[in-house]
Amino acid sequence: RVEQMLALIHDHFDQSLKISDVVAASGLHPSNANAAFRKVLGITIGEYMRRHRLRHAMRLLVETDLEIAEVAYECGYASTTRLYDAFQKRMGKTPRRYRLDSRRRDESPAS
After folding, report:
1. Which of 33, 53, 66, 90 could hold 23 in an S-S bridge, CB 3.0 to 4.6 Å?
2. Which residues contact 72 (CB under 8 A, 6 or more apart)?
3. Neighbour tally for 97: CB within 10 Å
4. Helix, strand, or coil here: 93?
5. Three-state SS letters, 26-44
6. Whole-prediction pTM value?
7. What are 6-64's pLDDT values in tens digits?
């Protein structure tokens, strides 16, 4: 059943997916679904969703030239501010700074 929840997250993270939607996909009682998810992955459903969205945003920032607002939208963030907040909390920098730093690192000659 955790696989069902993961599939829903991976297929619909870019939409306004709620934890209750993920729980419903499991067919389990909410407390049992959360416990099963945490037992298998070691983190809550909400934390997994936040990390998955952020990983996708990081990839888009490095691999595309999408505007920051477009990245936020593509990753299911309700606003650009939510994306900025997530980046500041997890990465200690803004999405723009992350993009610039990542591209500089990729362009620097190997030592």
Report:
1. 33
2. 57, 79, 80, 82, 83
3. 14
4. coil
5. HCCCHHHHHHHHHHHHCCC
6. 0.85
7. 999 999 988 888 999 999 988 999 999 999 999 999 999 999 999 999 999 999 999 99
**3-class SS at 75?**
coil
Q: Give residues with Cβ within 8 angstroms of 32, minimum separation 6.
A: none
Q: Which residues of 73-96 are buried (b: 16+ CB within 10 A; e: fewer)?
A: bbbbbeebeebbebbeeeeeeebe
Distance between first and last Cα of the chain:
47
Task: Please give the C-alpha separations between residue 1 and each of 7, 10, 70, 75, 107, in angstroms, as whole numbers.
Answer: 10, 14, 32, 24, 43
Burial category of 62 from C-beta neighbours within 10 Å (exposed 0-12, middle 13-18, buried 19 and up): middle
